[in-house]
Design a protein that fits this description.
By secondary structure, this protein is mainly alpha-helical. The protein is built from 6 helices and 4 strands, in the order ααααββββαα. A hairpin with a 6-residue loop joins β1 and β2. Bound molecules: zinc ion (2 copies).
Length: 185
């Protein structure tokens, strides 16, 4: 009698265990599908790829998941977006910086002369006082023609401004100094 009872209870235990195991496998399978769906959605917006990946994992389970992990896009959409933002910020930072043509130092937009190598960067309009690029022959702000060589007339007029802050090594030949500086670079 005792052996019968033991067999019965063993059978019960086996049924319980297999039911439990089946439920566990089903839950695992669903979790894998759910995780994969969430992951693939964060990496691509392509619906066809979503469906293909879900089918792959639904049919092959863990080996399918392994294939997906090998082939999935490396960065998520959010990471790609963050990277684009960082690149744009870097780019605008570079664009907002001006570099001395003479020595390559970072200079500011309102400077007339590079304080490091004394290269002239901009000139001043005699009429309206706006800063002009050296090659300009006419002021874009007040339409006054800038006479003569871009480096001579205005250069002399500005000398008094500049002398306060910048000490030219050769004040009598600023043109030569400037062209030397450009050649050196
Ligand atoms: Zn410089
Ligand atoms: Zn002007």
């Amino acid at each position: 009698m005792e052996t019968f009872i033991d067999l019965d209870s063993l059978g019960d235990i086996f049924v319980y265990l297999s039911t439990f195991f089946g439920a566990f496998v089903a839950a695992l399978w669903l979790s894998l599908l759910f995780w994969t769906y969430r992951d693939v959605r964060s990496r691509t917006r392509d619906r066809i790829i979503h469906i293909l990946v879900i089918l792959l994992v639904a049919l092959l389970n863990l080996p399918g998941l392994l294939i997906y992990l090998i082939l999935r896009p490396k960065v998520t959409l959010y990471e790609a977006y963050q990277r684009t933002l960082e690149e744009e910020a870097l780019l605008s930072e570079i664009e907002s910086k001006k570099v001395c043509p003479g020595c390559g130092s970072t200079i500011q937009f309102l400077w007339q002369v590079c304080p490091y190598c004394h290269t002239r960067i901009q000139k001043v309009c005699a009429q309206c006082g706006q800063l002009l690029e050296l090659p300009w022959q006419i002021c874009p702000y007040c339409a006054t023609p800038v006479h003569g060589s871009p480096h001579t007339v205005v250069e002399l007029e500005e000398a008094s401004h500049v002398a306060e802050t910048v000490d030219f090594e050769e004040p009598s030949q600023p043109d030569d100094q400037e062209s030397k500086n450009i050649e050196d670079s």
